[in-house]
Amino acid sequence: MLLIESLFIQGLAIAIGACIGSFLNVVIYRVPAGLSILYPPSRCPHCLRPLAPRDNLPVIGWFLIKGKCRYCHTPVSWRYPVIEALTSFLFWCVAAYFGTSQPVPVLCFYALFLSWLLALAMIDIDTMTLPNSITQSGLGLGLIYQASLVFVNTGDRTNLAGHLIFGIGGAVLGIWLLDIMRIAGRVFLQKEAMGGGDPKLAAMIGMWLGWQNILLTILLASAIGTLVGAIALLLKNISKQQPIPFGPFLAVGGAISLFFGKDILNNYLSWFGIS
To answer: pLDDT tens for residues 159-188?
Structure first.
C-alpha cells in the first residue's frame, strides 16, 4: 500500500511540476522586465498573438509547434520546455527522496522552495539581478514554512518560537556572511565581487534551512562557483574580468542542502567524534 501511495505521489509531483515550470517561465521572463505575471495571458513575444491552449501544454506544447510560433513562425527558445522538465524533475526528486517520510504539506513547501530557487537562478543568469519581489516573497514563505512545522509534524505549539528562531537565525546569518564576503571582495579585489541581491537570497535560504545549512550552502556555492569559473577560464569561455552570477551557485547549494544537508553535516561531525 505504501508503494502504491508513493508512486501516486511521484506521478502527481511530475505532473504538477511541469505545470509550475510553465508558470516559472512566465516569472523568469516577465518579472525582470517589470511586467505582470498574470496579465496578459501567455502570448508570443514577437507577434503578440495569444497562445492556443494546446500550445501551453508543458513540455509537449513546444514539440507540437516544432519549436516555432504557430502564427509568425518565430523560433521559440528550447529553454521553455527545459525549465518545465527540470521543475518536473525537481518535484519528482522531492516526492521520491522524502516519499511518505514527510507529510504532504511539507513536500509542497519543499517543492515551492525549489521553484523559488530555480526562478531566481535563471533570472540571475539572464540579467545578473535577483529581484527583491522574489527573494522577499521567498523569505516570507520560508517564515510561514517554519511556523507550519509545529502543526504538520508535531502539533506542539510550544515549539513555534524554536522554529521561528531557527529560521530567522539562519536568515540573519546568511545575509551577514554574504555581506562580509561582499565587503572583503571590495577591499581585496578593488571591485564589486558580489551583487546586492546575493545576501538577500542567502537570507531566504537561511530562513528555510536554518543556520547550519546556510553555512553548508555558502561553502558548497563557493566551491561549485570556483570550480565552474576555473573550468570556464580553462576553456576560454569567459575572461578574467567577466562577472559570473553567484545566485545560481547559491541555489544549487541550497538544493543540495535541502536533500543531503543533514547527512553531510552528520558525517562531518562524526569525523570529530561528535554525534
So the answer is: 888 889 999 999 999 999 999 988 887 777
Contacts of 245 (CB under 8 A, 6+ apart): 124, 125, 128, 195
Q: Identify whether 40 is preceded by a cis peptide bond (ω within 30 of 0).
A: yes
CA atoms within 13 A on the CB side of 63: 7
Percent of the chain at pLDDT exceeding 90: 57
Q: Which residues contact 7 (CB under 8 A, 6 or more apart)?
A: none
Domain boundaries, the chain: 1-101, 104-275
pLDDT at 41: 82
- Calculate the average pLDDT of the chain: 89
Question: Model-level pTM greater than 0.70?
Answer: yes
Which cell numbers in the block locate residue 70?
504557430
- The one-character DSSP state at 154 is I
b/e code 102-128 from CB counts within 10 Å (16+ = b): beeebbbbbbbbbbbbbbbbbbbeeee
